[in-house]
């Protein structure tokens, strides 16, 4: 028998959701509408000269080779951050879930990085790879491995990927650990009695039951890689060397606040928003089919 909650007043539900709706309207829909409006305008940095140009800003964007190259950079960066972050966090969660003594200490230490601001994470990893005094730079030099993120684009990409993954690992770890602890031990014990190896138990029982958590984290990590990593890129590489680490969100900032192309920057933010919305829809449309609730 289906049960439904009925409010005595039909206005009460609207009152309850009003604070959340106000936040969404003020901090999402209003800025998004302003970006769409400014994307069809050409204006100077101070807004004293405004001209309607229609789709001209978008046409200039897709005729710009450096902007098209930033799509490839963003795709590589986002894929590396999402896959690496989820894989490492899952491994740490599985290991932490097996710890009996000192479990609280281990879990607390693994959660700490989430409290670090993105810009601090970027500076931290930059200092560790700063030659010749950085800890990791010194270790690489002692091992005979040349490292120069200022000139080598692959090194620069590796630097921001490591910083972004380290910053997000704690968030992923928390959800994976909670998912692992919600799995009934009797299922794993039954598989053990049947002779299943630890690897077989993980892939046939544990991981399928974690697919709702994994799907949620996949969506969150894609959004994180597209938007929340701006401070890491700005602090660690400034989009360099050249523009080899200038992901889309960083290019929005650079063209708007440094190149002072307000219309072009607004057009980029609209394109970026549409890409993330499209990716989220695709994930819910196709990836969610493999989720076992």
UniProtKB/TrEMBL annotation:
Keywords noted in UniProt: Cell inner membrane, Cell membrane, Membrane, Transmembrane, Transmembrane helix, Transport
Membrane topology term: Multi-pass membrane protein
Major location category of this protein: membrane
Protein location: Cell inner membrane; Cell membrane
Source species, domain of life: Bacteria
Record field: transmembrane: 12-30, 75-97, 109-136, 156-180, 201-227, 266-287
InterPro entries attached to this UniProt entry: MetI-like, MetI-like_sf, UgpAE/MalFG_permease
Record carries keyword Transport: yes
Residues annotated as domain ABC transmembrane type-1: 71-283
PANTHER family in UniProt: BLL4140 PROTEIN (PTHR43227), SN-GLYCEROL-3-PHOSPHATE TRANSPORT SYSTEM PERMEASE PROTEIN UGPA (PTHR43227:SF9)
Record's subunit section: The complex is composed of two ATP-binding proteins (UgpC), two transmembrane proteins (UgpA and UgpE) and a solute-binding protein (UgpB).
Entry's family note: Belongs to the binding-protein-dependent transport system permease family.
NCBIfam families, A to Z: PRK10561.1
Protein name (record): sn-glycerol-3-phosphate transport system permease protein UgpA
Taxonomic lineage of the native organism: Bacteria, Pseudomonadati, Pseudomonadota, Betaproteobacteria, Burkholderiales
Gene that this sequence comes from: ugpA
